[in-house]
Amino acid sequence: MHQFSFEPVSFPPAAEALRGEVRAFIAEEVANGTFTPSKNSWSSFDAGFSKKCGERGYIGMVWPKKYGGHERTALERYVMTEEMLAGGAPVGGHWVADRQSGNQILKNGSERARATILPKICSGECYFAIGMSEPDSGSDLAAVRTRAVKAEGGWKISGTKVWTSNAHRSHYLIALVRTAPKEEDRHAGLTQFIIDLSHPGVTVRPIYNLYGGHDFNETVFDEYFVADDMVMGGVGQGWKMVTGELAFERSGPDRFLSTYQLLAQSIRELGAEPDDRAANEIGRFVAHLATLRRMSSSIAGQLQKGAQPAVEAALVKDIGTTFEREIPETFRHLIPTEPTLGRSESYSELLGMTMLRAPGFTIRGGTREILRGIIARGLGLR
Amino acid sequence: MSAAPMDDSASGSGLRDDLAKTIDRVFETHCARPVRESAEGGQWPAGLWAALEEVGLPLAALPESAGGSDLAFDDAMFALRRTAYHGAPVPLAETMLAGRLLVAAGLKVPAGAITVAPVAVREALRIEGGKLSGNASRVPWGDLCGHVLVAAESGGKEVVALVSTEGASSGVEKNLAGEPRAALRFDATAVIASAPLENASFRLAAEGALYRSVQMAGALERVLEYALAYANERVQFGRPIGKFQAIQHLLAVLAGHAAAASAAAEAAVEASAAAPDEIMVAVAKSRCGEAAGKGAEIAHQVHGAMGFTREHNLHYVTRRLWSWRDEFGNETHWQTRLGRRVASMGADALWPMLTGR
């Protein structure tokens, strides 16, 4: 059986100093009217804010200076991300590039890819989309059918990617693509490509979500040319890379702070002297949150040491997203209101928007069911 | 490890590995099924207790001057957790707790098992002229421990006091694990020693909640192991039931609760090296209590009828989980307390509070 490891970390003084800096920055931005925390989540897009984050050195924090990074520790980056999320900052523009795409490029990209792309990510002016899912390949990622065929100096890619969040305003997409026919080992023959979305030949069509928002897209490639040096790592190494990337994607504070704004606003609504029932529920959420934060930061510490705690990451995401979804479901009982769609800055609107976003929490980045399968494998059951 | 094993020159995981091995050996040798069953019948498990004393566990975290071996508090809690993993039918947590409070109050620690009078339900214990009066209910092993540590009021101050249990028991109930929980009646009972201790009654309650949290984390670790072993060996429809997705998902949820309980208990221990950290203890008792109920439910579901038998060992830990979650304040008690504190500080203070500890 896999021994789950959640070794505690202690944040170094530099991380705590950074915490104060980020908190002050957010307070200033809120005071200047740049954004309203209660209206944001980590998928909220704001190019101006991303640029400010880049200027302040909050993107690519752990990457080498020669690529525009800041050579800080994973724990410092962790502190920055949790402060951004708790502060309701609109980090959606650069979030994916900073969280996972840039790491992949640094680790597996060609020198040209690193030198041309990473500095732009760091300055907050270059965004990434994730090209994993396809119309017939969601949870079953190894079933992807998008193909790359070898061409002079590169590859020609054809196929369709879906749920590509932000592809309509991203500069690049990292796609998982089949480069060799499916064999007995279905994980072989998959390769990751960095695809520049700025050239003609790629079609990005919106897929509106259930509340009419536009984050998702369908992204179609028709013999779209990608140069050899935009292949990530070796041809056929895609599966290993994708699973490594998921430890970054699944373990962070974005997997339990998606509804923090609603939690905070609910506490405000209930006032300084809530009744027993409300106090009990607030206390329960605080207990869960404190525990999740400890588990998630532990993974940041493990990633810093070069470990790949994929099973622990799946576990944090499973319990973290369960927690996120309980928040609207509980407070709707304690603060009776009819959840509202609209532009007002009312509690009922925050509750309404949170409810409409909630189904995504336990789907994006690996469904709850897939995660539980990964945990079960870690437990030695599969 | 034998006579004087708690050598503080060792440290870190090496020390913990040694602690675990020592404890495992003690339970293997001294806590076979007949010992467990006779303990539930009201018999004091003298052999098991003597073996734990021989390895120095009950007083390990106390300074040498108090008869201990200066074991770090977190290592002592690790040891307690391991005994809970074994479903220990002895008042080890209570003796450790009493020792820590006696030392904190500058009092001498007597030999033998010591229990504590929980103060979750405030019973007015008063000391006047060196005599203790009042009632204490649900005192763990209150009929079998020689001494009890109480928090009491004396001359308008909060004190801790040590008294003999002799003749004090006015009735013994059992918790769900068959452990004695005695009602003690004091009627001008002579106090052996007492001293002021700030917030004594809360301190005792919070320490108790912390130790029970650690115990629940240990018991959940065992429950998960039992459930995994059973899922891998029990064959139905031609394959181990652990191959069925429904069972796999149940066990993944159980693993999540076990890991969360462990993280919450460790965080509280870390924050409580000198004295219990009110917020982190509330977090731990709440989170571990919830995990106890949900985890035990899943473990039994996976075990089917087999886990419902007396014959299987699962119940030695699950019955403790169902008891411990309600002792020293249940989830509602601690969550409500925590929620009130957060509400009174205001929402804007929540995040700084979480990140500031």
Q: Taking all residues together, what is the mean pLDDT of chain B?
A: 94
Strand content of chain A: 5-15%
As residue ranges, the low-confidence spans of chain A are: none
Task: Find the CATH superfamily of the largest domain in chain A.
Answer: Butyryl-CoA Dehydrogenase, subunit A, domain 3
CATH homologous superfamily label of the largest domain in chain B: Butyryl-CoA Dehydrogenase, subunit A, domain 3
Distance separating the two termini of chain B: 36 Å
By DSSP (H or I, 4+ residues per run), the number of helices of chain B equals: 11
Count the helices of chain A. How many?
A: 11
Largest beta sheet: strand ordering of chain B? 2-3-7-5-4
Helix share, percent of chain B: 40-55%
Percentage of residues in DSSP E strands of chain B? 15-25%
- CATH-level-2 architecture of the largest domain in chain B: Up-down Bundle
CATH topology of the largest domain in chain A: Butyryl-CoA Dehydrogenase, subunit A, domain 3
Report the CATH topology name of the largest domain in chain B.
Answer: Butyryl-CoA Dehydrogenase, subunit A, domain 3
Shape field of chain B: globular
From the spread of the alpha carbons, the general shape of chain A counts as: globular
Alpha-beta classification of chain B? alpha+beta
Tally of individual domains of chain B? 3
Coarse structural class of chain A:
alpha+beta
Order of helices and strands of chain A: HHHHHEEEEEEEEHHHHHH
Which two chains have the most extensive interface, and how many residues on each?
A-B, 49 and 50 residues
